[in-house]
Amino acid sequence: DGGITQSPKYLFRKEGQNVTLSCEQNLNHDAMYWYRQDPGQGLRLIYYSQIVNDFQKGDIAEGYSVSREKKESFPLTVTSAQKNPTAFYLCASSIGTGFPYEQYFGPGTRLTVT
Amino acid sequence: QKEVEQNSGPLSVPEGAIASLNCTYSDRGSQSFFWYRQYSGKSPELIMFIYSNGDKEDGRFTAQLNKASQYVSLLIRDSQPSDSATYLCAVNNQAGTALIFGKGTTLSVSS
Description:
Chain A is mainly β. Chain A has strands at 4-7, 10-13, 19-25, 31-37, 43-51, 54-57, 64-66, 76-78, 87-94, 104-105, 109-113.
């Protein structure tokens, strides 16, 4: 059963704490992505990775960090430096980067920081 | 900043009607265009992609692309209440490394 898994589905943290969101795929995709979605807003790119041990900042990388040690895994850490961390976080993957590769999404993690 | 624009809606159509969703983009270099459906509280689901001018049909869905006008649309024929969702338009960035998303159009199909 191929797909993208994200865990946990809901996450609650206190302000000032770092938190790591998990993303795993068994689609054998090279590229993986992290997006953030706020209510009534489109998706905004946080980080992406085209290949193992390589990743690039997206439009809103400040306050976030990632790693890509395995092809299947692309965890996202939301650090205490992120000013407004409460959001819906979506992980996606694609066969590669560039035209015309479509992206497929995991179920998402809803993070609430109080 | 490259942009993708969509009318936020809501777009309301009766069951059985054709729903027409529109999207414009600012980067003339964009080559691939995607439509995602997102139900409330869920993640986006890919429903169509298109990269050549003209129409592409898949079941009740038709994507239309006009690169000269920088316009892409999605038609949903015989709309069903289960089509009620937010539809996100996405366009590849110039480097082809990521997608730029619009804010989405909310569609409501009444029975």
